[in-house]
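Subject: design request, 674 residues
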C-alpha cells in the first residue's frame, strides 16, 4: 500500500466499515454455529442418557425375570434335602442360571445328584457371604456377588475377573427360613449382559457410544467395556476413573434415571440397575459429534476472509484512482519546500475537495513567498548592525539560532555559520538547567518584559564561562517574529563576587565558617523552627597559648589548621563547623539526639587530642574543653543557646579541662533571664 494511503481518513473509514460488516457476518455465523453446537450436544447427551438407561433397564428386567423364576421354584421345595436341583429336573432354571443349589440356613449345600458343589462356590463358603446371611436373617430375596475364589470381594474400581452373581431366595415354612434356593450366574459380555455391552446408537461420522464398564454399588467392575475405534484402552480407563471419582464425590448414587458428566472430550453416563445396585457406564466422544460443526465454522471463515479480500482489492483500486490528483498535489508541496519551483507554478487542477485544497495551498504558498522576502530584507539589515556590535548578538526563531554576529561566535568558539540552526539549549553548560532557563525567558517575554540573567555557557572546545544574557522580542507581543539575545563574558566579575561572598562568611586560615557565617547558620535553624533534636558544641582549645608564645604564630596557625581538619573530618557533611575566633571553635549538629551528641562530642575531643603537628623537631598538640547544649524551645534565640553552650564549656574548663560537659536544667535557667 502506498505510504500516502496509510493515514487517509477516507481509506480508514471505508476499510473500517468493510471490516465491521465482515466481523458482524462472522460473529453472527459463529453464534448460529455455537447455538447449533449446543443444541446438538444437548440432544446427543439426552440420547446417550436414554441409551444407557435403556440398557440398564433391560438388564434390570432380566434380573427380575430370573429372580421371579427362582421365587416360583422355591415354592415347590418341600424337602430341601431331597429337592432335585439338576438341570434335567428344572430345565427353565437351567436356561437362566449357570448352576442351581439348595442350602440350609447354616450355609451347608445339599448335595446334587452328581455330588458336585455349586459353580465356583467352595464348600463352607456360603456361611461367610454377607449376601447369603442377609437372605437368611431378613428372609428376603437378594442378588449379590461372589468372587471365583469365594473369599475376596476385590478392591473398588478394580476389574472383578470371573465374578459370579448369586440369586438367593428363602424357602419359608411357618414364617421361618427352612432353606435357601440359589442360582449362580457367571457374569460376562454375553448372555445376561448382551444388550448392555452392545454398541450404542450411531450419530454419524463414527460417533458411537461405548460401554466403559458395569460395576457394582462399590465401584467394582463386573464387566469390562471395549475401547471405541481410535480410542486407546488407557484413555478409556482414565475416563472411567475420573467419572467414578466424581460419582463417589456425589455419594455413589445408583440412579435408574442416569447421571451425566462432561469429562473433557467425553460425555460419560452412569445408569443404575435397581435390585443388585449395579451401574452401567457408557461414554460418547464429543469431538466426533461436533466435527461437522467445526467444518462448517472453518468454511464460513474462509468465505468471510475471501469476501473481505476481494472487496478490499476493489476498494483499494478505486481509491488509488480517486487519490491520484492528491499525489500530484503532494509532490508539488514537496517541491515548494525544496525551492525547486517558483511559488506560482506547477499546481495541479482538479475537481471537488482536492481542487479546493490545491487552490488554497497555492494562495498560502504565494503569501509565504512574500513573507520570506520581507524577512530576508530584514535579516540583511540586521546583519549589518550585528557585525559592528561589540557584544555577542543572536537572532532566534523558536528555540533555534537563526543569525549570529562574529562576537557571539568568538565567545562560543564556533564559526558563525556553524551556529546557525543550532538549538539554544546546547549553548548552556548545565544541560539540566536548560529547560528552566528557556522557560524563564519565555515567561518574561510573555509579560512584556526583557529577560536578564547570569548563566554558565559552553564553548565548542568544552570549556565554560559565565555570561550575562539579555533576551527581548523583535516585535513585542509577537513571539513568532523571534527574539534577540545579547551575551557578554562576565567570568572575572562573577569570580570576584564569589570570592568576596565566601570571604565574608569563612575563616581565611582554616576554611571553616567564621563567626558571622556560623551565627547565620544558627539563625536559619532557629527561624526555621525545626523540631528535630539539634546540638551546639562550643570547643575551646587547651594549652594553645604556650604554642603561640614558644613557637610563634606560624606554629599556632598550623595547629589551628590541624584542629579544623580533625573537626571537619569527624562530623557529617550536613553539619556546620566554624572558628569563632582565636582558639574557639563551634559545631552545629542538626538532627542529632542528646545521646548521640554526647558520644560525638567525646569522639571530637579525642580527635583534637590526637592531632599532631611536627614543628622544628617537636610534635605540637593541644587538648580541648567542650560544652554541649541541646536546643530547647524555651531558649527562644540563638544568643541564649550559644550562652548555654558557653556556660557548659566554662564548666568543662573549671573541672580540669579535656572534658565534655552538657548544659543542665539549672544552667539553662541561668541562661534565660527572668
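Subject: RE: design request

Done. Sequence follows.
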Amino acid at each position: 500500500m502506498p505510504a500516502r494511503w496509510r493515514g487517509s481518513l477516507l481509506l480508514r473509514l471505508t476499510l473500517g466499515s468493510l471490516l465491521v460488516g465482515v466481523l458482524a457476518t462472522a460473529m453472527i455465523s459463529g453464534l448460529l454455529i455455537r447455538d447449533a453446537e449446543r443444541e446438538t450436544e444437548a440432544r446427543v447427551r439426552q440420547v446417550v442418557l436414554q441409551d444407557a438407561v435403556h440398557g440398564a433397564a433391560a438388564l434390570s428386567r432380566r434380573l427380575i425375570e430370573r429372580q421371579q423364576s427362582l421365587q416360583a421354584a422355591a415354592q415347590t421345595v418341600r424337602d430341601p434335602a431331597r429337592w432335585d436341583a439338576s438341570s434335567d429336573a428344572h430345565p427353565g432354571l437351567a436356561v437362566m442360571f449357570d448352576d442351581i443349589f439348595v442350602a440350609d440356613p447354616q450355609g451347608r449345600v445339599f448335595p446334587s445328584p452328581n455330588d458336585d458343589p455349586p459353580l465356583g462356590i467352595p464348600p463352607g463358603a456360603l456361611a461367610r457371604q454377607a449376601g447369603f446371611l442377609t437372605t437368611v436373617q431378613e428372609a428376603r430375596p437378594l442378588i449379590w456377588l461372589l468372587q471365583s475364589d469365594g473369599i475376596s470381594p476385590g478392591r473398588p474400581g478394580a476389574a472383578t475377573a470371573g465374578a459370579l452373581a448369586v440369586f438367593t431366595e428363602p424357602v419359608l415354612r411357618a414364617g421361618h427360613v427352612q432353606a435357601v434356593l440359589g442360582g449362580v450366574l457367571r457374569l460376562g459380555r454375553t448372555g445376561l449382559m448382551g444388550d448392555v455391552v452392545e454398541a450404542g446408537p450411531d450419530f454419524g461420522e463414527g460417533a458411537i457410544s461405548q460401554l466403559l464398564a458395569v460395576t457394582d454399588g462399590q465401584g467394582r467392575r463386573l464387566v469390562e467395556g471395549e475401547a471405541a475405534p481410535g480410542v486407546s484402552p488407557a484413555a478409556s480407563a482414565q475416563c472411567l476413573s475420573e467419572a467414578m471419582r466424581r460419582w463417589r464425590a456425589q455419594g455413589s448414587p445408583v440412579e435408574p434415571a442416569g447421571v451425566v458428566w462432561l469429562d473433557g472430550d467425553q460425555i460419560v453416563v452412569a445408569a443404575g440397575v435397581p435390585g443388585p445396585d449395579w451401574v452401567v457406564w457408557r461414554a460418547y466422544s464429543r469431538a466426533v459429534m461436533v466435527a461437522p460443526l467445526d467444518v462448517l465454522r472453518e468454511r464460513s471463515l474462509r468465505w468471510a476472509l475471501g469476501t473481505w479480500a476481494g472487496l478490499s482489492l476493489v476498494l483499494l483500486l478505486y481509491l488509488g484512482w480517486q487519490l491520484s490528483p492528491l499525489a500530484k498535489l503532494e509532490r508539488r508541496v514537496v517541491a515548494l519546500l525544496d525551492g525547486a519551483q517558483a511559488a506560482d507554478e506547477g499546481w495541479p487542477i482538479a475537481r471537488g475537495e482536492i481542487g479546493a485544497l490545491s487552490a488554497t495551498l497555492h494562495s498560502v504558498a504565494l503569501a509565504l513567498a512574500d513573507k520570506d522576502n520581507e524577512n530576508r530584507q530584514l535579516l540583511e539589515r540586521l546583519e549589518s548592525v550585528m557585525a559592528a556590535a561589540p557584544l555577542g548578538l543572536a537572532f532566534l526563531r523558536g528555540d533555534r539560532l537563526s543569525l549570529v554576529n562574529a562576537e557571539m561566535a568568538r565567545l562560543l568558539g564556533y564559526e558563525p555559520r556553524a551556529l546557525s540552526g543550532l538549538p539554544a539549549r546546547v549553548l548552556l553548560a548545565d544541560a539540566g538547567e536548560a529547560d528552566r532557563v528557556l522557560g524563564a525567558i519565555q515567561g518574561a517575554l510573555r509579560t512584556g518584559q526583557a529577560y536578564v540573567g547570569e548563566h554558565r555557557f559552553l564553548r565548542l572546545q568544552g570549556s565554560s564561562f559565565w555570561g550575562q544574557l539579555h533576551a527581548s522580542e523583535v516585535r513585542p507581543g509577537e513571539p513568532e517574529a523571534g527574539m534577540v539575545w545579547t551575551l557578554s563574558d562576565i567570568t572575572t566579575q562573577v569570580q570576584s563576587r564569589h570570592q568576596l561572598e565566601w570571604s565574608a562568611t569563612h575563616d581565611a586560615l582554616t576554611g571553616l565558617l567564621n563567626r558571622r557565617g556560623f551565627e547565620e547558620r544558627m539563625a536559619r535553624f532557629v527561624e526555621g523552627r525545626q523540631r528535630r533534636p539539634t546540638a551546639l558544641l562550643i570547643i575551646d582549645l587547651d594549652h594553645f597559648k604556650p604554642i603561640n608564645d614558644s613557637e610563634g604564630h606560624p606554629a599556632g596557625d598550623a595547629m589551628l589548621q590541624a584542629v579544623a581538619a580533625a573537626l571537619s573530618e569527624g562530623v557529617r557533611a550536613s553539619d556546620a563547623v566554624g572558628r569563632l575566633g582565636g582558639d574557639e571553635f563551634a559545631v552545629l549538629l542538626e538532627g542529632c539526639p542528646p545521646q548521640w551528641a554526647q558520644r560525638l562530642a567525646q569522639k571530637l575531643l579525642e580527635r583534637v587530642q590526637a592531632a599532631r603537628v611536627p614543628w622544628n623537631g617537636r610534635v605540637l598538640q593541644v587538648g580541648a574543653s567542650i560544652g554541649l547544649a541541646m536546643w530547647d524551645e524555651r531558649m527562644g534565640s540563638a544568643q541564649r543557646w550559644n550562652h548555654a553552650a558557653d556556660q557548659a564549656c566554662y564548666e568543662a574548663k573549671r573541672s580540669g579541662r579535656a572534658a565534655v560537659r552538657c548544659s543542665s536544667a539549672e544552667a539553662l535557667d541561668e541562661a534565660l533571664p527572668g
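The domain at 389-496 is CATH 3.30.450.20 (Beta-Lactamase).
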